[in-house]
Specification:
Layout: H1 2-7, H2 25-33, H3 43-52, H4 57-66, H5 72-77, H6 84-97, H7 106-115, H8 129-140, H9 144-165, H10 171-176, H11 178-191, E1 205-207, E2 210-215, H12 218-228, H13 236-241, E3 244-251, E4 257-266, E5 269-276, H14 285-288, H15 290-328, H16 344-362, H17 370-379, H18 388-402
Antiparallel strand pairs: 1-2, 2-3, 3-4, 4-5
Helix pairs in contact: 4-6, 7-9, 9-12, 16-18
């Protein structure tokens, strides 16, 4: 009975305080809006609904102690009320599992929620102890500018890394805190640069007072996902594979992000895949028109590079052909004692081709035909001699090595 009385939502005049406001009044309204409880239900019903939905008792006490601030990051990261109740429970539970005694700062919490977007489960994808490590480090930062930079840059990068690669830390590393986690991330980044960024053929450019910038790293995607409140960071894998490219479209004067354009590769062509504004809504008309502009620029750059590569390849072929002709113009000197071992035609072949064959066999000259590749393998004893010229050369090699 006492528990029910404690959990019942009081009237404004209860407890002798005319301005009394129950710490869970906002959360109760959220539960009603989400259809979890009815308007006439009291706090006891709300508590049971929370426990059934997966909130533990520590989380319930955390909610009672801190009220709306315990889940404010979820409200900040969401456009509407859809599934906010479940996500709030997830976030409260996560903070408790991480060992926090007070809510994570909303700058960190909002970005954490965006990082976990689409994976709201109580089975963790990121070890919740990272929240305590980040919170302790955050409190050690006295300067507000340092805190903001940490939230916008380092925190986002490390969260994406933890989610995507699932690194494992020992007890000492967790005890050492954020700096130890950061060192491990920086080590991974040095060893795996190709897993963190990609190259765009089209650099940043301006069009109709808009600034178009390629997104070329997982950090770029995470930052843009936070600013635009969408799932653009889910495109990291196709971007890393080279089959997808993303561009941020922003106001040139203010820098305000308007949309994100995605182009996809289909065969030998690039096509516009999507252009979305904030919350995946349709963008302004002037931003939507840039899809074709970006695609044409990308196709032009790819064709330009392909033509350049073709010209360079042709140049290499011509240079290699000239090198082969230079070696073929040289005459191989055959020792007198070898001439009894070969026929007249074989001696003639060795004299005209010996220097060239020797350069191929030693690696001094690169092959430019399939039969030359086979000849190199025969000269190294990898393959048996199959043609008359290969057998003559192998006999010549054996005689030379026996001298």
């Amino acid at each position: 009975m006492q528990l029910t009385l404690d959990l019942a939502i009081p009237n404004e005049k209860a407890a002798g305080h005319t301005n009394y406001r129950h710490p869970l009044k906002n959360f109760r309204n959220l539960a009603i809006t989400s259809g979890v409880i009815l308007e006439e239900d009291d706090m006891g019903v709300l508590r049971e609904a929370c426990l059934i939905s997966g909130l533990n008792m520590a989380g319930w006490r955390f909610l009672n102690r801190h009220g709306k601030s315990a889940y404010a990051a979820v409200l900040s990261a969401e456009e509407d009320g859809e599934s906010v109740f479940e996500k709030a429970l997830f976030y409260v539970n996560w903070q408790c599992r991480g060992g926090l005694k007070h809510p994570l700062d909303i700058e960190l919490g909002t970005r954490f929620i965006m990082c976990m977007k689409g994976t709201y489960e109580l089975i963790p994808d990121i070890d919740p102890r990272i929240l305590k490590a980040a919170d302790d480090y955050w409190n050690d930062l006295a300067d507000q500018a340092e805190r903001l930079f940490f939230a916008q840059d380092e925190w986002v990068r490390v969260l994406d890394w933890l989610r995507d690669t699932q690194p494992v830390f020992d007890r000492n590393q967790w005890r050492s805190g954020w700096r130890a986690i950061r060192r491990n991330y920086q080590k991974w980044q040095r060893l795996n640069p190709e897993l963190d960024a990609w190259h765009s053929l089209v650099p940043a450019f301006e069009e109709d007072d808009l600034h178009i910038r390629p997104l070329t790293s997982t950090y770029d995607l995470a930052r843009e996902a936070f600013q635009m409140q969408n799932c653009v960071e889910d495109y990291a894998k196709p971007c890393l594979s080279g089959n997808y490219r993303l561009f941020s479209i922003a106001e040139k004067s203010s820098g305000t992000s308007l949309a994100i354009a995605g182009i996809a590769k289909e065969g030998d062509y690039w096509k516009i895949d999507q252009i979305k504004g904030r919350f995946n809504k349709d963008p302004e008309v002037r931003a939507a028109k840039l899809g074709q502009v970006i695609t044409k620029k990308y196709m032009y750059q790819e064709k330009l590079i392909a033509r350049r590569n073709t010209l360079e390849h042709q140049k290499c072929i011509e240079q290699l052909r000239a090198e082969h002709e230079a070696y073929l113009s040289k005459r191989q000197i055959i020792p007198k004692e070898f001439k009894d071992e070969f026929s007249h035609d074989e001696i003639s072949y060795l004299e005209s081709h010996g220097v060239w064959l020797g350069a191929l066999a030693s690696g001094e000259l690169q092959p430019n035909a399939c039969e030359q590749v086979r000849f190199i393998a025969v000269s190294k004893g990898i393959l048996p001699a199959g043609t008359e010229s290969e057998r003559v050369w192998r006999r010549f090699q054996v005689l030379c090595n026996s001298r």
